Automatic annotation (TrEMBL):
Molecular function via GO: protein-L-isoaspartate (D-aspartate) O-methyltransferase activity
Superkingdom classification of source: Bacteria
Predominant localisation class: cytoplasm
EC number(s) given by UniProt: 2.1.1.77
InterPro entries: Methyltran_FxLD, PCMT, SAM-dependent_MTases_sf
Family statement: Belongs to the methyltransferase superfamily. L-isoaspartyl/D-aspartyl protein methyltransferase family.
One Pfam family linked to the record: PCMT
Chain segments annotated as transmembrane: none
Cellular compartment(s): Cytoplasm
Protein name: Protein-L-isoaspartate O-methyltransferase
Keywords for the protein's UniProt record, in alphabetical order: Cytoplasm, Methyltransferase, S-adenosyl-L-methionine, Transferase
Length: 390
């Protein structure tokens, strides 16, 4: 329909300015997102936003149609070729599976796995409506992959994962590649990995943010909805006690300058990664409606976000002022101490030449992992993090 064509072309043009390949852009131009979000208007469907499609009983978002730009970046990382066999973990609406089906063509095969039976049923209907009935959609725990259709040339997860699960690696054929939103101590990076001798090594790493995998293979990350009216949500790298955060945010605060200037990208990318690696009290707060977070926090499409540290009823969050200089805003009984700790981290990151995701290398070892270096130990693998010079 004509009403969908113009906003879809605008979205594709926007993607191209971000360096998305012509092949992947053509897939977004061909596959209609509105078929997978049939109850929403064009101006919503074809914005470059993630759209929540399911929440649990506590109000936490547990499924969505992912942000198109991030989907496109990951599809470029995946490097799908015609005729290949692809396993997708996290079906959601079925939109990404349809994009994959377009990329592999009639000689290829796409298998998509989701843990929720209702999502699987709806995704099958959407795929039929979109002219992609050939996609195999399976209800099951994605951590186990889908062995009956293995081996695969590519494996992609569209859900945040804490570890590289053995089934995925075992079901990949020779020369295979896996792309996953991998947890690195509470933050996610989309990592494209291939075999390198006896381990797996990254070929590209980009920032991303996805809803976490659920079920028995979920990681220790914690997400809590603190206020449903504004959708104020806190994310932690693991289990922990959270005090009265809304009350602290409404109480007295302390402002402590870091005397370090940053861009929004540096704040969202480099500093969030630095805090995750070096600070076990790291946290991220987000809200869908303006309410408690100070302005201007980080503002990705569709919600407001701030990063910082938390300890019980006290926390400190980073703010960028009009001149892009950072301050740490402390709240709660220990606000001064936490603000000082946060400023120390900011200055340490600055002294370390502001490492970003660009240049980050991640090696994953299932056995015989290194004993030294910046290591992140998981259930099935050990990640070794390093940065290239410059």
């Amino acid at each position: 329909m004509v009403e969908w064509q113009e906003p879809r072309e605008e979205l594709v043009a926007q993607m191209r300015t971000r360096g998305i390949s012509r092949i992947v852009a053509d897939a977004f131009r061909t596959v209609p997102r509105h078929v997978f979000l049939p109850d929403l208007p064009p101006e919503t469907v074809y914005r470059d936003d993630a759209i929540v499609t399911k929440r649990d009983a506590d109000g936490r978002a547990i499924s969505s149609s992912s942000q198109p730009a991030i989907m496109a970046l990951m599809l470029d990382q995946l490097g799908v070729e015609p005729g290949q066999r692809v396993l997708e973990i996290g079906t959601g609406t079925g939109y990404n599976a349809a994009l994959l089906a377009h990329l592999v063509g009639p000689e290829g095969q796409v298998v998509s796995v989701d843990i929720d039976a209702d999502l699987v049923d709806r995704a099958r209907e959407h795929l039929i409506d979109a002219g992609r009935p050939e996609v195999t959609v399976v209800c099951g725990d994605g951590a186990e992959g889908f062995a009956p259709a293995a081996p695969y040339d590519r494996v992609i997860a569209t859900v945040g994962v804490w570890d590289l699960f053995p089934a995925w690696l075992d079901q990949l054929g020779p020369g295979g590649r896996v792309v996953v939103p991998l947890d690195v101590r509470g933050v996610q990076r989309s990592v494209a990995m291939e075999r390198a001798g006896g381990h797996w090594t990254s070929h590209s790493v980009v920032p991303c943010g996805f809803m976490r995998m659920r079920g028995p293979f979920a990681g220790p990350e914690t997400t809590l909805v603190l206020d449903r009216a504004s959708d104020l949500t806190i994310s932690l790298p693991g289990p922990g006690e959270v005090g009265d955060v809304p009350g602290a945010l409404e109480g007295p605060s302390v402002r402590m300058p870091a005397e370090v200037g940053v861009s929004r990208t540096q704040l969202l990318d480099g500093l969030s990664l630095w805090l995750a690696i070096h600070e076990p009290r790291w946290c991220m707060l987000s809200e869908a409606q303006p309410g408690r977070l100070a302005s201007p926090p980080l503002t990705p499409s569709g919600f407001r976000m701030a990063i910082g540290v938390i300890d019980g009823d006290s926390l400190s969050l980073l703010e960028a002022e009009a001149d892009d200089l950072l301050i740490a805003r402390g709240y709660g009984p220990e606000r001064t101490r936490l603000a000082a700790d946060l400023v120390t981290h900011v200055r340490s990151w600055d002294t370390a030449n502001r490492p970003m995701t660009t240049g980050l290398r991640i090696d994953a070892y299932r056995e015989a992992a290194p004993r030294e270096g910046l290591l992140v130990r998981k259930r099935h693998t050990t990640l070794a993090l390093s940065w290239s010079a410059g």
